[in-house]
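ingest -> validate -> predict -> emit
validate: passed (alphabet ok, no gaps, 110 aa)
predict: started
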Amino acid sequence: MGQSNLVLFESKQVRRYYDVKNEIWYFSVVDIVQALTDSINPTDYLKKLRKRDTELGSYLGTNCPQVEMVTHEGKKRRTLGGNVEHILRLIQSIPSPKAEPFKQWLAKVG
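emit:
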């Protein structure tokens, strides 16, 4: 059992889930892509990124679990969730001026 909630990074909502058993926060990978890139379709951005960087795609697919989080529409859905280590690996692959501020923010909320 765990708990879900939202946190804000520069006014962007990032969903997170706390796994009580393992004492780990998981963050929505798609929400992080949205926050770093301002992409209109962060799901497609992530798909293209994983295709272009096969090492990243394999890493995320192997290490990031599907975690149940509430969508922006209020429905519960399983979404790709990454812990701090996974998110830092993702940030390395996204060229964004927001990367450093995001790392600092992640250290506070994660």
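The mean pLDDT is 89.
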